[in-house]
Amino acid sequence: MAFLCSSLPSYSSIPIFSKSNTHGFRSSSSCRLRLRPISTSHVLAPSIDRSTIVISETVSEEELWAAACLRVRTFNELNPSSYNIQDHRRYLAEREFEALKERVSGKREGFTRVSCVNATLPLSQLSNSSEDLCSACKFSDGIEDRVVVGSLDLNQCRWLPDEIAGTKPEGISVDFARAYLSNVCVAKELHRNGVGYKLIEKSKVVAKEWGITDMYVHVTVVNEAAKRLYMKCGFVQESAEPAWQARYLNRPQRLLLWLPLPTTS
Fold first, then answer.
1. Would you give the DSSP letter of residue 149?
2. β-strand 178-186 against 214-220: which pairing, if any?
3. Which residues are in the N-acetyltransferase domain (predicted)?
4. Which of 44, 182, 215, 265 is 20 to 30 A distant from 74 in Cα terms?
5. pTM for the whole structure
């Protein structure tokens, strides 16, 4: 799962439902990053009005930036006492932001179309619960200040770099009728509020509008919470990554899950 800020391997812990490499470069060990092996069992979700959650495709660069910041915040564990930590966090966000803009604008080779789908809440719903989330992931929609609390990419393409490729559909329609979810993430403060489920359901709607018939997502074998979420959304396992490939890419072995989408007449 994803999915974010770099081509870090997808450990798909609870905060990371799906993180797939869509950037085309590898992170340097000098970045001193590691993916969060955090469980949500001890994270208390704030009391929010769920009716104020909006799930939509990103339409502004300001919202794309907020999504990039959420991905950095979710997928990387940075030591807060490290020297120049804020500068390093901003560097990661800028790198993710530029890569995200490239994909969404249609300039990334191998991707027919990419949409960044976000879950957002009014700033007023969160201002008393998470100052860090609000300051890092805030944007204005022209009416009010909102915060990106969940995000994913819907990628219309034949395959994702360094990932298992799906097998459906076959033939000449594969470039237009197959899609992958990547960079699926939800802010830890909003776990257990149905945000991940709503993001995936919205991605189904967008995919059907594009003419997608087969949707895929990658998840690590050990990520039971993510697997439960995807299966709740209708995904089933199609294949598993070979163990040698996972070792070669220095990451946990993952599964490829498949979801057939009904076609509209």
1. E
2. parallel
3. 70-262
4. 215
5. 0.84
CA distances from residue 195 to 15, 19, 151, 235, 256 in whole angstroms, order as listed: 12, 17, 9, 17, 22
Q: How many helices (H) and strands (E) does the chain have?
A: 8, 9
Largest CA distance in the chain: 58
Per-residue pLDDT of the chain (265 residues; tens, 9 = 90+): 433 333 333 333 334 455 665 554 333 333 333 344 333 334 445 678 899 999 999 999 999 999 999 999 999 877 767 778 888 889 999 999 999 999 999 999 999 999 999 999 999 988 777 888 999 999 999 999 999 999 999 999 999 999 999 999 988 889 899 999 999 999 999 998 999 999 999 999 999 999 999 999 999 999 999 999 999 999 999 999 999 999 999 999 999 999 999 876 5
Number of domains in the chain: 1
Instruction: Determine the structural domain holding residue 90 and report its residue range.
Output: 16-24+45-260
**What is the Cα–Cα distance from 146 to 37, expressed in whole angstroms?**
28
Determine if residue 139 is left, alpha or beta; phi over 0 gives left, psi from -120 to 50 gives alpha, anything else beta.
beta
Q: Using CA atoms, how far apart are residues 129 and 195, in angstroms rounded to an integer?
A: 17
The amino acid at residue 79 is N
Helix spans in 171-236 (H): 174-177, 195-210, 224-232
Examine the residue annotation and report whether 216 is marked as an active-site residue of this protein. no
Helix or strand or coil: residue 153? strand
Residue 64: give its domain's CATH number: 3.40.630.30
Residue 32 placed within a domain: no
Residue 144 inside a domain? The answer is yes
| Backbone dihedral angles phi then psi of residue 209, each to the nearest 5 degrees | -65, -30
37: in domain: no
Q: Which residue is catalytic, options 83, 91, 230, 248?
A: 230
258, 214 in Cβ contact below 8 A? Answer: yes
